[in-house]
Amino acid sequence: MTKELPATGDQRRSQLLRGVLDLCLLSLIGERPRYGYEFVEALTESGLELVSEGSIYPLLARMERSGLVESYRAPSSSGGAPRKYYRLTAAGRGELTRGRAVWREFTTQADRVLGDSGKTGETTP
């Protein structure tokens, strides 16, 4: 029988981020159309530096297949090959609105449990 060790801070952050990464990407696309590497830059600037391009592209492809985003090619500003940009569809805008509501409700409920109310949960003898 293997004993599972508690998650480290980075592992826990990674697990939490995996659960909301699609919503984060929809929110970034909602600001303006973006191409792949711009997502990594924006997430890193927001303090979510645990995300790599390798985890973003499969998620963008899934969101495109499910009709939440659509892609188009546009010339690169640096003169290189055209870049694939993503923009929200009407379904994507609806999903972003619903996802934000669920996130707010979830974080409010989790804060009730996790919030520092001066109690440590320990009892003294």
| Strand order of the biggest β-sheet | 1-3-2
Strand percent estimate: 5-15%
Which structural class is indicated by helix and strand composition? mainly alpha
Please bin the fraction of helical residues: 55-70%
In one word, what is the shape?
globular
What's the tally of helices? Answer: 4
For the secondary structure, the number of strands is 3
Task: Write a brief structural summary.
The protein is mainly alpha-helical and 125 residues long.
Fold and architecture overview:
The protein has 125 residues and is mainly alpha-helical. Helix content is 57%, strand content 11%. The protein has four helices and three strands, in the order αβααββα. It has helices at residues 9-31, 36-45, 53-65, 90-114; strands at 34-35, 69-74, 83-88. Strands 1-3-2 form a three-stranded antiparallel beta sheet. A hairpin with an 8-residue loop joins strand 2 and strand 3 (83-88). The longest helix has 25 residues, at 90-114. The mean pLDDT is 88.
